[in-house]
Amino acid sequence: MESKVIPSHVGFIMDGNGRWAKGKGMPRNYGHTKGANNVDLVVSKCFEKGIKVVSLYAFSTENWTRPKQEVDKILALLHKFLIKYTKKLITNQVRLVISGDLNVLPEELAVLCREKMEITKNFEGKILNIALNYGGRQEILMAVNNLLKQGKTEITEEDFMRELYTANLPDIDLIVRTSGEQRLSNFFPYQSVYAELYFTNAYWPDFNEEELQKALDWYAERNRRFGGV
Ligand code: FPP
To answer: What is the pTM of this model?
Structure first.
């Protein structure tokens, strides 16, 4: 069954890579590799189904506390993804946005992020927004500090939203978190105040088209119910 009401903007908290690997008697980093390999499929299916903006939580400001070899692995997977995925972004006319503080990332990765955003910046229909070294509180403070630097003494919502990493992106309609955890973990708090929250027990490496469709069908039901009130 196709969903009747398609959300414009869906955010994914890609959780459970470590537990997925552990369940298979494999090291955590194997789970991250499989998780990264799953990104293309889920993002492609989202765009096919008419979702315009896909946000992914790839690396949070809190993730630096993980063992160095795990941090290095996740950053290396992102590096590889950005190199491999560029052709597809251009063919499919997808704009890439990276939300997060790039200044403290390894220089090569930061350069790559800026370059890929630059070369896709004029695409409009589809947007892939990757949260990388992202934290919602950090983003809000950054916006406030930028406004203070501009000498503003009173601001509108529009002024504030222009300073966020997600400037000009629509609010998040649906957040999907995998692996059974029911938390938002600092994921786009300002942009998701009206979002529907969907939690599934599936681990991220197992999240596939069928799981995505279940989330979209659930969303359509929620929306229909609210529409009737
Ligand atoms: C959460 O699982 C996952 C992460 C912190 C990393 C997500 C990163 C990727 C999927 C790879 C790179 C991303 C892209 C966009 C190519 P966890 O390790 O917290 O799992 P656990 O809760 O089972 O330990």
So the answer is: 0.96
